[in-house]
Specification:
Blueprint: H1 2-13, E1 18-19, H2 22-29, E2 42-44, H3 49-61, E3 66-69, E4 89-92, E5 108-112, H4 117-126, E6 129-130, H5 143-149, H6 156-159, E7 166-172, E8 178-181, H7 194-198, E9 207-214, E10 216-217, E11 221-229, H8 232-245, E12 249-255, H9 257-267, E13 278-286, H10 291-300, E14 304-311, H11 314-324, H12 326-333, E15 337-342, H13 348-362, E16 365-371, E17 376-382, H14 387-400, H15 425-438
Parallel strand pairs: 2-4, 3-4
Antiparallel strand pairs: 1-2, 5-9, 6-10, 7-8, 7-9, 11-13, 11-14, 12-13, 12-16, 15-17, 16-17
Bound molecules: flavin-adenine dinucleotide.
């Protein structure tokens, strides 16, 4: 079966783009964290929407499952083969890398699913505009992956998540049919809105082949403050204060002391501000230099123990590294248990207290940081003693505090057993019915978003 399918897929995409060699398959079989791993029957790399359609039609005819993979930077095991079950075909979007010219009138661009966030940003900036979404895996993470996970990142406070940036989509269903439109109309009310349906569906309803994306003004003048505050409550006060005053606020991130110590060690640098109970990285971007208004807001907030403020340049890049390189420094220290949760900002303090107590009891080292405005914390546990029990307790805690078990990374396979904490039985039944309608055989990303 494998040989005949490989032959059929080679007819669709060309022999060079069907990979069956075990050594070459390895990088597609393990996720970025190293926690999730399975066996692929083969990897196929379609180069157009028609080829994606051809691949899915052939796989469906042979009853072989498909796992879609973009940059493989996902953190919940959704983009690699499951550890159990039949080996699927991994559909890599890497060759769907066409990036159209920027439409400056509409402030939009069309990008293939395999275009990276960094390429999207560079294309926009070449035209004097900018991409509204940014996060640390930008050089590898793809448009298709960001749409599928409804990715967030540091600029959500200003521009919203990936879902808000997609004004058109072209996607291929499990039976090979192509749906959606890339016309990019800002207003259209004509039944199902494909971007809304597919953003956040984690590759379970369709393979995204291309997207029409919103662009935003490029605020070239930036300023950054790394601020030491007493504790999380003081960080939340600072959030409210600067949000109400700074039109140019572009991101506001929370870093707790263990994360700050780890990234400092990884960078081989001293933390630029004094010891404290919490750190906040505030970034402003504007057409005119925002450094003075940022410094003034920080100073007048009354919440600050110590601060380092810088306009753009090497000093600012240095400050940003203390947030941007945390995930990388955690990965360098070991294979972490990663929990991406959100709670109302007023409950962040309690979330951290209870998560700390859980990890102290069950074993491990908690490294916490996140996106302050959305109450979104990344709770990473290095050397997790009882990973299952820690996950269970922390996800239940977040839910009890009025939050969610996944803010931006998605459910994948990692959190599928806990989906019932945030979705009612009726929600889950309706979601199953939608999936049944699109993909009754569960050809696409089986095991993701449901158990
Ligand atoms: C250092 C680091 C920092 C990160 N920071 C953030 C952050 O701040 N915010 C954030 O949201 N995430 C963050 N992430 C997580 C990750 O980068 C995002 O989830 C990203 O959107 C995944 O994109 P990808 O192309 O790597 O997708 P993959 O990992 O390849 O896939 C992720 C999921 O999307 C599906 N998928 C991929 N492409 C398609 C497609 N074309 N059609 C349908 N389904 C598809 C996959 O099947 C899988 O379920 C970070 C990761 C790392 C390693």
């Amino acid at each position: 079966m494998r040989d005949s399918l490989a032959g059929e897929l080679a007819d669709v995409v060309g022999r060079a783009h069907v990979i069956t060699d075990r050594d070459r398959l390895a990088t597609f079989e393990t996720d970025w964290t190293g926690r999730f791993q399975g066996t692929a029957a083969m990897v196929v790399r379609p180069g157009s929407t028609d080829e994606v359609s051809g691949v899915l039609t052939r796989c469906k005819a042979q009853g072989v499952g498909v796992v879609t993979q973009g940059g493989n930077t996902g953190l919940v095991g959704g983009g690699v083969p499951r550890p159990d079950g039949d080996a699927p075909v991994v559909l890599s979007t890497i060759r769907l890398d066409e990036l159209g010219g920027v439409d400056c009138d509409a402030m939009q661009v069309t990008a293939g699913a395999g275009v990276t966030l960094a390429a999207w940003q560079a294309q926009a900036r070449d035209a004097g505009l900018d991409a509204p979404v940014d996060f640390a895996s930008r050089e590898s993470a793809t448009i298709g992956g960001a749409v599928a996970t409804n990715a967030g990142g540091s600029r959500v406070v200003r521009f919203g998540t990936m879902r808000s940036q997609v004004v058109g989509i072209e996607a291929v269903l499990a039976d090979g049919s192509v749906v959606g439109s890339l016309s990019g109309l800002a207003k259209e009310t004509a039944g199902i809105h494909w971007p809304s349906l597919l953003a956040g569906s984690e590759g379970t309803l369709a393979v995204v082949a291309a997207a029409r994306l919103r662009l935003v003004p490029w605020y070239r003048r930036t300023a950054t403050a790394l601020v030491a505050v007493d504790d999380i409550a003081a960080a939340v006060s600072l959030l409210a204060y600067v949000r109400a005053r700074l039109d140019s606020l572009d991101s506001i991130e929370l870093v707790l002391p263990a994360a700050m110590a780890l990234v400092a060690e990884h960078l081989g640098a001293d933390v630029p501000v004094g010891d404290s109970g919490a750190y906040v990285l505030v970034e402003c971007a504007a057409h005119d230099d925002p450094v003075d208004e940022l410094a003034a807001a920080i100073e007048s907030s009354g919440a600050v123990l110590d601060a380092a403020v810088s306009a753009e340049g090497p000093r600012r890049d240095h400050l940003v590294a203390f947030r941007d390189r945390i995930t990388e420094s955690i990965a360098a220290a070991g294979v972490p248990l990663k929990l991406d949760v959100a709670v109302p900002v007023s409950r962040l303090d309690e979330l951290v207290r209870r998560a700390t107590a859980t990890v102290d009891e069950l074993g491990g080292r908690l490294i916490a940081f996140g996106h302050l405005a959305e109450g979104n914390l990344h709770l990473n546990v290095l050397g997790a003693g009882d990973a299952e029990a820690i996950t269970d307790t922390v996800l239940r805690t977040a839910t009890e505090l009025g939050g969610t078990i996944s803010a931006e990374h998605g459910i994948g396979i990692a959190k599928a057993p806990w989906l019932g904490l945030v979705r009612s039985a009726a929600d889950l039944a309706a979601a199953r019915a939608v999936r049944d309608a699109f993909d009754p055989q569960r050809m696409l990303n089986a095991g993701v978003l449901e158990t």
